[in-house]
Fold:
Amino acid sequence: MHDAESEGVTAAPLPARAAPPRLAIHIYGWLLLLPAAVLLVAFTHYPAVETFIDSFYSTPKGRRAAALVGLDNYQAMLADPVFWRALANNAVYAASVIPLTIALALAMALLINGKIAGRAFLRLSYFTPTVLPMIAVANIWLFFYSPGYGLLDQILGLFGAATHNWLGSRDSALACLIAVAVWKDAGFFMIFYLAALQQISPQLAEAAALEGAGRWYFFRRVTAPLLMPTTLFVLVNAVINSFRLVDHIVVMTQGGPDNATALLLFYIYEVGFKFWDTAYAATLTVVLLIVLAVFALGQFVILDRRIHYQ
Amino acid sequence: MLHSIVKRAAAMALACVVLSSAANASDIVLSFYYPVAVGGPITKIIDGYAADFEKENPGIKINAIYAGTYQDTLVKALTAFKSGAPPDIAVLLSTDMFTLIDEDAIAPFDDLVKTDADKAWAKSFFPAFMENSRTGGKTWGIPFQRSTVVMFFNKDAFKAAGLDPDKAPGSWDELVADGGKLVRRDAAGGVSQWGIEIPSTGFPYWLFQGLTTANDVRLMNEAGTETYFDKPAVIEALKFWVDLSRKYKIQPEGTIEWGTTPKDFFEHKTAIMWTSTGNLTNVRKSADFPFGVAMLPAHHGRGSATGGGNFYLFKKMTDEQRTAAFKFVQWMTTPERAAAWGIATGYVAVRPDAWDTPAMQKYVADFPPAAVARDQLKYAVAELSTHDNQRVTKALNDGIQAALTGAKTPEQAMHDAQQEAARILKPYQ
Structure:
């Protein structure tokens, strides 16, 4: 590509001034890229490569330096029940949080895009959870879920339901954290849908109305396809968030009871900064990176083809 | 114009550098990491201590750095250590001792104890607190902010249930009997007030030690290389904890959140709670009913585990710095300061003679519950601490939570935990 361009430059009938030498153009280009490249390499690529290398070494401790152990860490990982538990939990978590958040975000955006009373207030209240820091949110929800006097139990109590130990039982703890994540992120994604909805020309709706299209038909055949680029963007972010955001777990359950709410990243934190087993943490991180890479490839390669960009 | 401004700024900067280096050239500078784990203006108190120490010891500068929770402080100290610039002094959990030794990060105090006064000082602490501070014949930590588990009870609830409000249950049997009377149900049959709550999130092993110690069994050896999770007495203690919920129905089922347990107590959702003495000041402020503090109930024995933070000295220091750091640690643990620190925070003053100071005697006279923790120290044992501590602890925590949530029987849970702990500790034996 560079060659084609520079050839184009030399081939063109130029006035008195000579074309800049090829090398200078390359240096110029690289200099422009340099700031971004340095940041990317220093904070993304180098750590990823280093993590990958570290996963084949043992953890250095005291005077004992790291030693090459080959696939030992990976074998230990396959035999580690907590790892499998965290992976399974994360799968359930992602498979619930992602569709629920996107559906809720879209529903809220459609609702407040219409002309209804109190629209500004609704927009604000839908967006508020996004503005709050996750740590604060988790501390508030901790009390929502507390048995007996917590908000959830009080509301259910009105209908005569018995109190429930929401975060303290294995059946409900993960679902509770999923609810917090959906509540927290839906408002953020709603903003993108709202912006996309307002880009859609009203003429389309008018034309559809003239043709006698119903609202559902219009949504399915016109609105939804036009929202697909936004959906892809939201989906990418939702997937990343479902593996990246574990603040609420630290505050609300610390992965308990008995690892029922341990997610992959939380377990990596535990192994890395509580157990100080940095080599094993690197091994787990490699798995996380692979999972995210597979998702990203899938999204960009498969979904991108089906999306219509204006 | 611009030129002269630049010149002047440069001159000022130079002056600053010269001045500050002149003031500090002979100073010994010590960095001191500390965590905050209880309510109150802790950073202000510590900064005040550091300033007072500097005033009394010219030539030594204490750079006190608030580093977050215990966990944050350990992460910061160890990361700094691994990058070659560790703090000089740090307050970290007493249970982190083996981790710090294994990382080769800290140095023992023994070489610094030279004079008779030093020796007397080294012997002045409650023996229960020293259990987590010594191993292999050396002293690695000096007790500073230490706590233990005690029982808080609501006197109004005791009265309403027809119990003597001045007599807390003293044994497991009494706990079950009293607990049964304290449970109150609403019209629909739901429980509106539980008999007891023993929190089981975060660090359930610590509260569990209140049960195992009462059952006269220890969880690990002093060298930190063996655990005894599957001993019959340990399983029995866990079975009792589970039975409080499942058999006697005086405690909520499932795990109980550590953070909201005091709130449950204030809201009359539970008549008795077990929690840290560090919560004493908080309970005193927030409970709108008369409350009592008592030792944990006994069974075949009595007692609970100590907890909290110790002073550690990091290895990478000059001899001069080490001497100064030692001086600072001694200064922070004089009887008067230990008493003042205990009164300000609710921590248990770490040496018996601190309790004889006028300030502490007045405090205890005004507020007798403060002395319960001290009296219980006679029966206290070391908090669970082994090599690869947090991993072994997690094995036990997972086992306890599995039993409390009904996923495993107490036998199965403790056998699994012991197996996992033995696997982790194998390299250290």
